[in-house]
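Give me structure tokens for this 264-residue protein.
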Amino acid sequence: MAIAKDPKVIMNEQQLVERLTVIKNRKTYYKNKYPDNLCYIHADYRTSADCVNLIKAVLNGYDVYKNQIGYYQKDLSNTGDCTEAELLSQCTDVSQDFKALGSHPEILYQKGHVGVYLGQNVQNRWNVIECTPSFGGGVVYSWVDQDGTRRSENGGKPIIMSNGTYNRWTHHGRPSRWVSESYTASKPVQEKPAEPQDEYPVLKKGSKGEAVKKLQKLLKDHGCDPKGIDGDFGNNTLAALKKFQEKAFVTGVADERTWRELYK
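Here you go.
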């Protein structure tokens, strides 16, 4: 493995976040089958890539907006053919204090794995993107807590190690050698503008009123028919809600997480 001798800043922070967001949900053949740690995009648009190779590809200028088949990480001059630890070693402001994470994107590291912290969104959720075979596989959003705990997107559950302890990121660092600052801490990264808090009433079977009508309409808009917009949370609304929640979580209660998914 070799670290790049003279890496160049080729994008700003906003561009880094945008490029990573474009490839969110990209399915991968996680284990790289090709020589020289190159990434390869297949005819089905899956990639042969792992966590560090995908990040290196972006930092080496991979055009995420084109679905071109073939090698997309031919030029390693900007990062070098480096390991996860070597990638972190090229970052600035490396720290183990996760309370220090702010609104700037950073490389997250644990032994054998890396991801990219995208900056805090308003809800402080879904603020990491990583290429992983865990919780669904591919390129996915995940969460990080202020103690470094790694949480899945699927309900935000902590990743548990085989010994029963939480899986945690151990270090983070700014990718300043490749990425320049572009936005201020006063404008956190977010998926979309947050809806008012009163848009998240907790509703369950037996609830009634205008909020239930809104829930029923949104469920129907998402293809989960509650068989009526009557403001009465009965068995049909419960079945529709559980059907909607099946793609990520099933609680049978319309809570804040459910409303945020419905508003997408």
